[in-house]
Amino acid sequence: MKNLKLFVIPITLVLCMFACTPKEKNDQKAPLAKVTVSGNAGNFIRIKGRGFSTNKLENTVAFGDVRAVVLDATPQYLLVQVPPHKTGVVPVTVAVGAESSNPMMFEYNNSNVLLAVAIPARR
């Protein structure tokens, strides 16, 4: 039994040392995927988040440097209409008072199709 312990303990220690050895560093990192929502001016977008004001006038949504119209607001969602803008990708930010969100990217399509969505009234 003593001989078995003398054999097992050193083997266990060696295995632990190799298990804790750092792996080779890979200098190449995978590029971060950028999520971009796309649409046209006049489309309606529902933005999910938290901390929004229930007073729609206290929420500011900007597509690039163009302010969007906030149609409805709850603490978790904003319904906005995409403002006119030239074709391309712009950052979308939401501000409530002095607090501002991280930007989300929005791509304006070059088609002139206007999509409409029926929103049921809240009770």
What do you see in this structure?
There is one protein chain. The chain has a domain at 46-108: Immunoglobulin-like. It starts with a helix and ends in a 15-residue tail after the last strand. The chain is globular. The chain has one helix at residues 2-19; strands spanning 36-39, 44-48, 59-63, 66-67, 69-73, 77-81, 88-96, 99-100, 104-108. The protein is of the alpha+beta class. The strands form two sheets. Strands 1, 3, 4, 7, 8 and 9 form a six-stranded mixed sheet that branches. Strand 3 (59-63) and strand 4 form a beta hairpin. This is IPT/TIG domain-containing protein. Residues 38-108 form the IPT/TIG domain. InterPro entries: Ig-like_fold, Ig_E-set, IPT_dom. It comes from Chitinophaga dinghuensis.
Number of helical runs? 1
Average pLDDT across residues?
A: 78
Q: Any low-confidence stretches, pLDDT <50, length ≥5? A: 29-33
Strand content: 25-35%
How much is the radius of gyration in Å?
A: 27 Å
What is the terminal-to-terminal distance? Answer: 78 Å
Q: How does CATH name the architecture of the domain at 46-108?
A: Sandwich
Q: What sort of overall outline do the alpha carbons produce when their principal axes are compared? A: globular
The CATH superfamily of the domain at 46-108 is identified as Immunoglobulins
Estimated helix fraction: 10-25%
Structural classification: alpha+beta
Query: How many strands in all?
Result: 9
What fold name stands as the CATH topology of the domain at 46-108? Answer: Immunoglobulin-like
Pfam families: TIG
Keywords: Signal
Domain IPT/TIG: 38-108
InterPro entries: Ig-like_fold (IPR013783), Ig_E-set (IPR014756), IPT_dom (IPR002909)
